[in-house]
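Subject: Sanity check before I submit

Could someone independently write out the structure tokens for this chain? I want to compare against mine line by line before I put it in a report. The sequence has 1053 residues.
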Amino acid sequence: MAINTIPEITLENTALPFIEQPIFDAAQQNVIDHEQGFCLVTGPAGTGKTTVLAEAVVNKIKTGIASDKIIIFCYSRHSARVMRKYLARRLPGFSVPQVATFHSFTHSVMQAAYNQGIIDEEYSFSPLRLLSGPEQEVMINELIKGTIEDGSINWPPNLLSALRTKGFVRQVRNLLARMRSLGMDPEQLIETGIKHDNENWIALGNFAEMYLDNLDASETTDYGELVHRVNLLLVRLKSLAELGIKFTHFFVDEYQDIDPAQVRLLKSLVRPNKFLIATGDKSQSIYQFRGADFEAIDRFNQDFGQSKHIELVNNYRQVNPIDVEVNTYDSTNAQSFHIANEIRRFKQQNFDAKWSDVLIIVRNASSINPISRALTNYAIPVSVQADDLPLAKDPAARVLLDCLGIAGQLALGNFDPSNSEVIRDLLRGPLINASPFELRETARLLRKRSRENNESPLTSDQALYKAVIDPKYLLEIPSEISQGVRRLGALLASASQLIKKKVRVEIVMWNIWNLEIDEQNTKLFDVEKTSYKWSKTLRENALRGGIEGRKADKDLDSILALFDAASRDDERTLGTRGVLNFLNDLGMQAFQAETLAQKPIEDDRVQIVTAHKSKGLQAKFVIIPDVQADIWPSSRLRNNLLEVERLGYETVVRSPSRSEIIAEDIRLFDVAKSRASQKLLVSAIKSDFADNGEPSGLLHKINSGNINHVLGFPHKPLSLNAVVSEIRKIAQDDTYSADFKKAVAKRLNKLATTKDAFEREISKAANPQNWWATFKPGSTQNKIAPDDEPVMVSGSGLATLRDCGLKWFLEKKAGANVPRQNSASIGSIVHALAQGLSNGEIEPDIQKLKEKLDQIWPQLSFEADWISQRSYDETLEIISNLLNWHLKRTGRKVVGAEVNFSFEISVDKDNPNQKVKVSGFIDRVESEIDDEKRLHIIDFKTSKYTLTKEQADEDPQLGVYRLAVTQKSLKADVEPESVDAGASLVYLKQLQKNGLKELPTASIEENGILEILKESFRKIKNEDFSATISPLCRTCQFIRMCPAQSEGKGVVE
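---
Independent answer below. Compare away.
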């Protein structure tokens, strides 16, 4: 028996016109030959359940059962589409029977009932419109807001703080769906709440009644309500024929994911006809959180009467052993690029393989973007289903949404609408595309004027932020060096005025997208005309093709989806919705709203899907990234606040335990693994410097626990651009002969001049016109430190300048910083709280500190709620450590916190004009109780990694702080004769038996700070910003462009 001849139902085969009849084993043939009654088919993944179900349909049609008597229920539209195509290929010359989901079937039943006048007037809709999940959440959110304003629902006290949150809205949606799937009315939910003394259910019962009334009033329905109403309808009918339902043979795939309402519907349909084949696998039940009836398979006999049970045992998907690899990587980006490299390798090693033979399965949608970008960089075609990635998290859409959000706040009169980092990112981003030089010079002049006016010190980001929001800050700034700042300010002001006029969201976004600024704001901000437009650049890049073309295509898709969402939002609300409500709705979506016409994924592309969408898919090579602890498996209790899962099939049950939730998540992981037929790669991030947490324990249960840690990025990426890069390196390597290098140059020329079928260059990287070069050290007329001025450095930047001049230059002068990680933002929060505590602005009480933390925390953005909660708990622990340390400082008096200092010092006795100007802020300055002239410097550290005693002694930051004391430059209320008495590093995460870990440092003489300042002066004056291998390399964001690293070596002229 040729067991490998059984075809899987996959998109791979849909282009073929016909499939020969497969060969089946005895158990499978038994299913196909089933003639009457009820039959349950079970078996693990890969045993051919879906294929056998389809062949049973084929057998019935070929033996005389009319196609219009048969209906097949699939669990998703995608699986229904695949089933339909498979049957069309197996049944040439026959009509394909109806293939539907339960929801599409009930939708057509309700529409037919309305058309025939069977539905009562109170249930009539015209036209019948089904709400998508995001639309349903928007409606629920608006109703909740209304109940808060008018007090129409008596919400229990324990829910009040949660009412306005996205998580609560999602739980309400799940509870409404659960209620209807169990056949409950709002009154029954209220009665259940009274019986079990559950105030939440009582309130939600009243809310459900309001929600259902709103559905009727708006002539819409949702998925749960749709099936429930059809069940009520079928109870009233004497015969299904009244609705034109003539089906006699019923087939159901993935029965383990059916819910109680669908079971009742199936019983009503099947009982008059007595024929049903259902396939399922209880170990693949992964939708319990959505109300799936986990025990439906066990109750099959009870629900349908005496039935046949056939167990399939032979695995035909993984006939040969699977090549399994388990890796950990240093970072998210490293993982993404290694995945792209592995896909390239797989394609090259398997000549008959197609891109669609690769499937990437992620646990959370947040993993999609970095992987998608890496695949695009490797020229790998990639496809992401529209509803797998929220629009609000897409980088291209985020640009327009950030502008829209700030403009909306300005329209409301809120002139502090955002944090400065958002403005900074917009200025640097593709919409404005301001140069680092322009931003640096504008910020420098703004800060200089602020100092001259004796105003509070500003950071560069804060200065730019003020200038964008209010044009008066730009009055004395030269227009030619501040056009980006002026353009963004004018654009936001113009958009805010459109919003005030109640112009539709779609039009406001269109003006932002096309940089359309009204005449008034053009004059107010003194904006000059520009030929640059992001919209134009994207369109041009998309037409050019190549990597940039693929990136542009992806960005344009996102922008179009955003405009589509805005236009549909206007249509649904007749243009009365405000901008801020629109943004709120997008922010509430866990996934992107369903578009008007979802495109099927049937071309030759690598698919990226979420784990729940992987069911029913198969690929030769399956990749499962980001398998991190607390993400997979997740032990987080779902729907815990409203106890949704306690509503059982016949009674109230206990909430699922953490072990049961983990078990379901492990089943989901097993489902993902089982999609592979040839190769499986499972990976996670393992790094001491990332926010990703630890790899999941699931990794140790794969491949006998053999886990390989891969360092850095791929050294030889398997892509055309990487090959071009290697050839270019060889061409400039003097160790090769001139003839060889000439031959290499010819290869480059061939690549540069070759074009594809659309007359586009296949490799722009091979064309010298597109090359970027790292020049040898030289000089420039625009000196960083003019000859007649002192060299300016900050205390915090000295260590970086000492260890690597290139990193210091890129960060401090070129403005090349990447967005801060949450760990850096948390450090800033802790320092702000420490300042308030030290200055007496915050009472030394943990509750007071917690209140301040709670006010600040929502400003941070985390990829998952559990990460936010974990980080919050860690931060609260740090603050508690800080408070305890502070209360024990009885022997010293706090002089000040965040104490500003600035001084000039000569670094060469023989040449006193060689000066360094050092400025910065000291976390905390203390004086001794017995002698207030003796000052002690405290520098707080929130890192979990500590310096050694020797490293602390040589720390230049503390050396500068102590030097500031001796130079009498502290801007604080200190004694005139104050002296340096010491400095310490205090590690707020390092709690020891006797308190927090403190590292005292050596004296100024032993610290060597004067020599460090002298060397810093030399480097900056000579502009010697050489790259240096140092411990900073482990976490450096510039490693891939660093000439000291193998990843960054390139052309040197």
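---
OP: Matches mine. For the report I'm noting this point. The radius of gyration is 33 Å.
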